[in-house]
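Reply to dn_fold:

You asked what the input looked like. This is it:
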Amino acid sequence: MADVKKLVSAPDEPKGRLISIFVGAVLLPSLALSYVAMDFVHKLASAQKATKIKNATGILYYIEKELAHTAQNRALEAAQALDPEVLLEGRPAVIDAALRKQGIGAGVFTTLRLETSSPRMILRTLRMGNRREIEVSPEVLAAIGSFADGAGEDSVPWPAREGQTGGVLRFRFSCEYAHHELIRDYFENEFKRQNPDQALVVRVSEPSGEVLYETAPTRSDVNFEVTREMDSASFRGLKLAMRNRDLSIDQQVKRWQHWTWILIGFIDIMLGAGLLLVFSNVRRELHLSQLKSDFVANVSHELKTPLALIRLFAETLELGRVPSEDKARQYYRVINKESQRLTQLINNILDFSRIEAGRKEYRFAPTDVGLIVNEVLEAYRFQIEQQGFTLEVAVADDLPEVSADKEALGQALLNLVNNAIKYSRDEKYLRLDVRRDGERVLLSVTDRGIGVAKGEQKKIFEKFYRAENSLVHETKGSGLGLALVQHIMQAHGGSVEIESAPGKGSTFTLVVPIRRRTETA
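and this is what came back:
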């Protein structure tokens, strides 16, 4: 939780505050724009649904007109096979007889008659090569028009022929023929050619709800979203209904709306993530900049301490103020040890620089771990004795040689011992334990110092990082030691482990494989 608060809190640096303002200035308008866009998408979806329904209604209108056109063509074909006098008379019984005689069949039409706009219609027929003119008087035409004025009938223009006046053919198919023959023939031929993938499903039903025809079977729970009642006399009262085969119009619109909202949300998330990444990176760079400044100050202090001791004892020896030879030898040892300490600090910085540049090289060879432990203890013997540490060393007798870079492994162990000495307060205790564990050798350094909190045990291996502890910051350090230790152990195919608790001390363990993986392979 502390890490989250730390991440989202405004940085104290002026540059950090400027970046925070920039992030807010970009993110907040983006969220507002997304809110407006989502509302716009909702309105657009409603308009899209209305358009789709309108288009579907237009398709039903087209189907109705196509059915009416089919009916007109059938009526013309039947009428042209009959004698015009029969069509002019228009009596159903005579029409049925004439249709049966032509092989068309009876009961197809309820009405079939011809109307002409001229008061006289001259019909020319050829019989046995002779021409006969038949004149229909205005009185007869008036009598025909009196029993049918076209109401409840369909009509189609009657084409003018040689010697004939054009007119209007009025007709109405019988329900049986129109509802079964015409409708079925249209949908199974003409409509199927126009709808080859059967993406549209059309149902024709009676006013009572009885289904006459359906282009594809439909479950009872599926609704037809668009309907139209037919006006043509032959199909009057029939209802056309249409749906999409796979997704309804409402489902299509909702799916489009859903995915559009997801896309807007995804763009917002990516934008937010990008801004958060920029913000966190800038904060991290600012933090690293501060750490580097602290590093320079701490390294300067660390360099200053051994240099001051070396200078002090060197001046004492130079001025001849040494009371005895034993004291002189002691001063020489101090100068030697402090110079070694100074060398170690400089080596840490140089090695870290090589690691950052990718130029650090290790020279692996069979190495005696016990000898490395002795050399490290000898380097810190003076500090251990001067500060009153209780030292315990346990080196197993059956230690094998390991494949390691002797100097690098010694440097890693030296850093752990140095940290144990620096961060011990009241209880001065130091233990080095070296033992074999299967195909590994474990080097443990134990102290009873200030310890490390659980949440920071991974972070302390990061470069320049120093634990958030006032006792830690009282002690000067570069923040590179443990990062260098971890890199050395990873290069050896091993690891560094820690067991620690605040106020109870720490145990750092170097896990060194006896043989590296490349050698085993």
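The longest strand covers residues 429-437.
Hope that clears it up.
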